[in-house]
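Final report, Chapter 2: Outcomes

The project's central promise was a pipeline that accepts a single protein chain and returns its three-dimensional structure in a standardized token representation, suitable for archiving and comparison. That pipeline is now operational. To close this chapter, we reproduce one record exactly as it appears in the project archive, with the input sequence first and the structure output second.
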Amino acid sequence: SNTMCGMTVALTVAFEIPIFFLAPQLLRRLSSESLLFIAACCYITRVVGYSLIPTGHVVLVLLLEPLHGITFACAQTSTVHFVASSPHVPKGSEATGQGLLGVFKGLGSVIGLLLGGVLEESLGPRIMYRIFAAIVTVGIAVLAVGRCWASGSKTFCTTTPRHAVLPQSETELSIMSGKEMKESNVSKRGTTKEAATMELI
């Protein structure tokens, strides 16, 4: 029903907003890949849950719908930050990088919708959801193995890499703090020299 659809959207947005609000803090504690891993786990849990809901109990969808908000917010934050902090995106081409990201996301949506339609018509919605869960499971497994192989670490949830982009305010604060420390050291040296000169006189 339209009411049920409206409630699912409301639940989704209610869980998206806090994650977007806390995105800078999450990115300081977790890597882009870790957020994408969280999004994938929530997606797999949600769609498998959809396939297990008994006929006539659509209201149970509301118990799984918060995972949709977590999936979207974490995936969006992860991919945007990955492109923004990637060393492969030249300085001054950040908007181009985000534009290419949008193109690939759009292509993925088109392919997913076409494949989903074919699978639903031929195998039914329950099998369709389980197939998509399997596809995402394989994808995130490949990402995890590739990340561990590239970093030489067995830990997937690592902190944000060194080249990651921090919020501008924090960057400016650190730069200002560094300048203040240098100015303070110069001032102290000058004071010491003046004191030594006065003693000689």
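Archive annotation: Confidence is low (pLDDT under 50) at residues 156-201.
This record, like all others produced under the grant, will remain available to the consortium after the project formally closes.
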